[in-house]
Amino acid sequence: MKSVTVPRINGDRLWADLMALGEIGFAPGCGVTRTALSDADLAGREWLVGKFREAGLEVRTDAACNVIGRLGSGPSGMGLVALGSHLDTVPQGGKFDGMLGVLAALECVRTIRGAGIQLPWHLEVINFTDEEAAHNAGTVGSRAMMGDLSDGELEKSLKEGRPSFAEDLRKAGKDPARIGEARRDPAEFSCYLELHIEQGARLESQGVQIGAVTAIVGIYRYLVTVEGEPAHAGTTPMTLRNDALVKAAPLFTLLPEWVKARDPEMVGTIGQVELFPGATNVVPGRCRFVVEVRSQRTADMIYLREVLKAYAARREGWRVETILEKEGTPCAEPLILAIADAAAAEGLSCIRMPSGAGHDAQSLAAAGVPTGMIFVPCRRGVSHSPEEWIEPAQAAHGCQVLLRTLLELRDRA
Ligand code: GLV
Ligand code: MN
Ligand code: MN
């Protein structure tokens, strides 16, 4: 590929933004908690809107609460390139998962404008709502934009006592009944690019600076409910109990065995368990938990789903409900090549690799938008943790590759 002249992004400015945003929802020892549509998330969005405006972007918030900053360029109808990720975090998360993609895209806009570069398409920077599954299935904003929400999912909370997405959306000033207005035609997008931390240790362990993502993992999730009978923990003899936790417990260790036996690259997790009524002196009357499996291979996830369903069907009081069945999604080959070329032109080492984490990019790719993802290493591969960390130079490398990829695409447009 012929190399184009690409201005340097300002790594200090990007880092300062990451650190400033990382203060919103931060508590010492607990990392950042900015779960989707929480007060902290709303504060983060307000901060972002200010930054977007400062950078000269036209800002709007769509019906799914996605924050969209637009740099209009050239005559209308020339297509659209979108960059983005998410600002919401898991409970007690880090300062980079999602934020890096949004703030690096913002830094690209500032660099492009500072250099007086005219793009042949409109450019949008998007902060997608609820990537992290705070309410139910996750990637809500990006799926809403691609018209891929399931019936009733917005009204259902996976955690007792926690508001649903619909309730939180209303609190944020949007009408859930109108979420369909967030939908856009995938054909509107020439492509979508997302920079993200790897969230695994492959790049770091191989001493590689950039990952060009080939495909994003598939995710199947199920809500399992096991019914028992609540009873007094002091007066109910062991032989007379119908303890929902005791009934559910064998599955907690069986799941990893099923997954390992099927495919060493597949993963399976039970990361959320609730007991009802949930008191020290009450025998659990109900146990509710979420089973998640991830694989690039749909057949493996279907196999696990059927094993789980058969196990539940053989037992009394078990119910399995589907939360999410998202297939593994390939990235667009021309974009994978463009990212690898951009890394090489920047003198950065690069490998092609799949993503084991889910991303908003998957929603766009699944809808047919040509999609590319850039990974940078994170320390020890740790993510979804207060320990999540990258170095300023790694953030800058990723951002520079994002900008170069964009400008190389411009020259091919
Ligand atoms: C999102 O970070 C996910 O992979 O669950
Ligand atoms: Mn995440
Ligand atoms: Mn993320």
Number of helices: 11
* Amount of helix: 25-40%
> How many DSSP E strands?
17
Structural class: alpha+beta
Largest sheet: 9 strands, mixed
The separation of the N and C termini measures 14 Å
* Distinct ligand kinds: glyoxylic acid, manganese (II) ion
Low-confidence stretches: none
Task: Tell me the overall shape.
Answer: globular
> Cα-atom Rg, whole angstroms?
22 Å
Order of helices and strands: HEEHEEEHEHHEHEEEHEEEHEEHEHEH
Overall average residue pLDDT: 96
Fraction in beta strands: 15-25%
Can you describe what's shown?
There is one protein chain. The protein contains 11 helices and 17 strands. Helices cover 33% and strands 24% of the residues. The protein has helices spanning 11-21, 39-54, 99-114, 140-145, 165-171, 202-206, 244-262, 298-313, 333-345, 360-366, 392-412, and strands spanning 26-27, 31-32, 58-61, 67-71, 80-85, 122-127, 189-197, 210-216, 218-227, 231-232, 267-276, 282-283, 286-295, 318-326, 329-330, 350-355, 371-376. The strands form 4 sheets. Strands 3, 4, 5, 6, 7, 8, 15, 16 and 17 form a 9-stranded mixed β-sheet that branches. Strands 11-13-9-14 form a 4-stranded antiparallel β-sheet, covered by helices on one side. The site of glyoxylic acid (GLV) has 3 residues, from loops.
